[in-house]
Amino acid sequence: MNENDITLVPPVGPDDHIDGPADAPITLVEYGDYQCPYCGQAYPIVKALQKELGASMRLVFRNMPLANVHPHAENAAEVAEAVALHAPFWPIHDALYENQRDLSDASLLRYAAGVGADIDAVKEALNGGGPRTRIESDLENGIRSGVNGTPTFFVNGVRYDDSWDYETFLDYLQGLL
User: Fold this and answer.
1) Going by DSSP bridges, is the β-strand pair 158-160/26-32 parallel, antiparallel, or unpaired?
2) pLDDT at position 5
3) Edge-to-edge, what's the strand order for the sheet holding 17-19?
4) Is the pLDDT assigned to residue 3 strictly greater than 90?
5) Relative orientation angle of helices 89-98 and 73-84, to the nearest 10 degrees
6) Taking a C-beta distance cutoff of 8 angstroms, is the pair 81, 87 a contact?
7) Which SS3 state, helix, strand or coil, does residue 86 take?
8) What digits encode the pLDDT tens for the residues 119-137?
9) For helices 105-114 and 73-84, what crossing angle results, to 10°?
10) Residue 148 DSSP SS3
């Protein structure tokens, strides 16, 4: 790490959405927007990296809905966070990216039901505002971490600014092992 590196604030903690072992030598944090077409392109790449690197990598997702550009992004993030209060996060995360072209309110609830979430509990969480608070915190932390677009990746706490095409990203990550 050098003085020009942009670092993750705050570091990964117990409140984050984490997939992978805590002792993995690589921690990949993504700040993403469910409606962002670039995040949609990155989604299968990240899945392939997870498959290739296995227990050597843990993935963390933080919300960065760019609501001024993507009108359904914030609602999608809120539904994901509402589901995560009562059910595993990663199935709804995946469902939202896999159905990125239709993020209408009715569809969001359908995806939540499809991953086994209790829709009444999801609606109650949405009405209570907890998911919005979580997203605002992610947004604030993203700004503090120098996130200026989506997707933005951090590898072991340092922003990754190279290409995130599969081969380039994989070579970089494998070089850390």
Assistant:
1) unpaired
2) 84
3) 17-19, 57-63, 26-32, 152-155, 158-160
4) no
5) 150
6) no
7) coil
8) 999 999 999 999 999 999 9
9) 30
10) coil
Identity of the residue numbered 2? N
pLDDT in the model for residue 142: 97
**CA 38 to CA 110: how far, in whole Å?**
24
Contacts for 164 with CB less than 8 Å, ≥ 6 apart: 42, 45, 151, 153
Q: What is the rounded CA–CA span in Å between residue 121 and residue 143?
A: 30
CA dihedral 177, 145, 10, 44 (to 10 degrees): -50
CA distance 145 to 147: 6
The closest of 20, 15, 42, 19 to 31, measured between CA atoms, is 42
pTM, 2 dp: 0.96
Separation CA 14–CA 28 (nearest Å): 15
The candidate with the shortest Cα–Cα distance to 142, out of 153, 130, 131, is 153
With beta carbons less than 8 A apart as the criterion, state whether 114 and 83 touch.
no
CA–CA gap between residue 20 and residue 153 (Å, rounded) = 16
Rounded Cα distance, 57 and 172, in Å: 13
DSSP states of 8-36: -SSPP-TTSEEES-TT-SEEEEEEE-TT-
